[in-house]
Amino acid sequence: MKMSVDREITLRMARAAQIRVAPEDVDHMMDSINDILSFCALVGDLDCTGTPDFTWRMKKRPSRRPDITRDWEDRERFKEKAPAIDGNFFRVPRISSEV
Amino acid sequence: MGVIKSARPVVIGLEVHLQLNTSSKLFCSCSTDYIGRTPNTNVCPICLAVPGTLPIINDRAVALGARMGLGLHCEIQNYSNFHRKNYFYPDLPKAYQITQYELPIAVGGYMDIEGDGGPKRVRIHHLHLEEDAGKLVHPTTDGRMTGAAYSLVDYNRGGVPLSEVVSEPDMSSPAEAREYVTRLRQLARYLDVSDGEMESGSLRVDANISLSNADGSLGTRVEIKNMNSFKSIERALEYEIGRQNKVLASGGRIIQETRLWDDSEGVTRSMRNKETASDYRYYPEMDLAPIVITDEEIEKFKEDIPELPWEKRERFARDFGLSKEEISVLTEQKELAAYYEGVVNAGAPPERAANWVRMEVLRVINEAGCSITGFGVKPAVLAELVRKIENRELSNTVGKDVLDLLVKDGCSLEDAINRSGASSAKLTGSSLDGLIATVMEANADVVGVIKSGQDKKGGKAKFLHGLIMKESRGQADPKEAAEALSRMLEL
């Protein structure tokens, strides 16, 4: 069954994702989401008769990590690659919901 | 236990986050020791969400989650898994938190507490594992987010393992909520699951509170965050009960929202509209295999559970014949309980040992600002001191001086007794009579009242007895002094 979104759901998705959408862009965003949903519906129409389910086959218990600490020596590289650094902190834009 | 008045029945459910006692983070090998560390030093590609990295679950975190679940009488699940909880906030670099959602590690269970009207059972909905977030700093002059041009992030705490214990809404007052958190923390400490320090953030509480409607149905619930102490839990809930009653009494309606407790102002403030579960867009964490716990493993976890607080309380009552109040103090911390047992096992009479540990040992510890683990007097030494007091070789007063010397100078018991002066000849017989005569002479008016038969309740005689003990500097035996005083007063 093909799903689709309307303007109201589109705006709600944008709010949940904290994306600011200009009024003139809402229709375009709605059309893009509906295109994706149409493609999903198309995939759903495929005849998968005889295709085995994709299941997680666990032959043994999934491994766990022992509780041992290890320092990551190359951490300075994170700072080099970070968009913005302030002393030892990563600097991020202010929280949009607090604006 | 105080009971706040509300026009409508109060319904409270709590979500308690406990930082688990592991050395490394939940999904990577970075240290969990982040207090006071330079920002962003306990980080690696996994907890910084570098693309291409894969999380691997910490075995001890699983064991501690199951252990806490067992302590809460939950059913440990053979199969549980993780989800991604999506939210746009930079305190986690992935833009989602890895948390258990549909299939938590432990479900059901309960915690018995002392409720407002007597013993009460608070049901546990479930316990799940999740990663902690990093810390945000908002560099404004007042420290609040509003007005900050940017934020700073420290990911040292990001990825530290948490267990979240979600209760059913079974508490009916702020005092019960506080009692529940107190018992939960005690359990976590007994089990070595968490240190449960609220001040450092290793125990955090979110409360859901509502007032019932007139028809008995549940009212709109409000979530309260940012309660950083046991006192603030009670204060925040009391404030919220008052606020909601006022809103409803004036014809208003309660909005489902999250409110932050402002401890300095003593109020809750609206933070944001409560996200619905779908806003978090939970979906399965495909980077992590499910947690599979076999029945054999669960049995092993059960075998490793130590004596729990309520079991210890029962045993102390049965074996030592102590009162409820004495037991409550002695078993509050398992280390204190172990110390007390050490004193008794070394030969001290249980009741007198209980008195000494409750009154004197705790006094010394409080004065020194240390814990029982840092208390320098070994149980066997205190047992010997208590035994000497029991045998009237030393008075209580001298015993206290001796204990102070033991703590202060770390000397042997014999040295401490010598230095307290108690080993010199005890005040007895004619020497004691002489001292009593001096006290009576100096308080002839009091003696007159007693002899005239006006001291019907014996208060004046007790006053004299107290003076004699004081003057004797603890070297007189209280019972012998009392008998000698009665004889000399011709009572």
Fold blueprint:
The complex is a heterodimer of chains A (99) and B (491).
Chain A lengths: L6 H10 L9 H19 L31 H6 L3 E2 L2 E5 L6
Antiparallel strand pairs in A: 1-2
Chain B lengths: L9 E10 L39 H13 L3 E2 L2 E2 L2 E4 L9 E4 L6 E2 L2 E6 L2 E14 L3 E3 L12 E5 L6 E7 L6 H17 L12 E9 L10 E6 L2 H20 L7 E6 L4 E7 L9 E2 L6 E2 L2 H9 L5 H12 L3 H8 L2 H12 L4 H19 L10 H12 L5 H14 L3 H8 L8 H14 L1 H8 L7 H13 L6 H12 L2
Parallel strand pairs in B: 13-14
Antiparallel strand pairs in B: 1-11, 1-12, 2-6, 3-17, 4-5, 4-16, 6-8, 7-8, 8-11, 9-10, 12-13, 14-15
Please characterize this protein's 3D structure:
The complex is a heterodimer of chains A (99) and B (491). Chain A has a domain at 7-44. Chain A has helices at residues 7-16, 26-44, 76-81, and strands at residues 85-86, 89-93. Chain A is built from 3 helices and 2 strands; from the N terminus they run H-H-H-E-E. In chain A, strand 1 (85-86) and strand 2 form a beta hairpin. With 491 residues, chain B is of the alpha+beta class. Helices cover 39% and strands 19% of the residues of chain B. Chain B is built from 15 helices and 17 strands. In chain B, strands 1, 2, 6, 7, 8, 11, 12, 13, 14 and 15 form a 10-stranded mixed sheet that branches. In chain B, strand 13, helix 3 (230-249) and strand 14 form a beta-alpha-beta unit. The A-B interface holds A 16-18, 56, 58, 61-72, 75, 78-79, 84, 86-98 and B 22-24, 29-31, 38-41, 43-45, 48, 50, 56-62, 88-90, 137-138, 145-146, 148-155, 272, 279, 281, 289-292, 294.
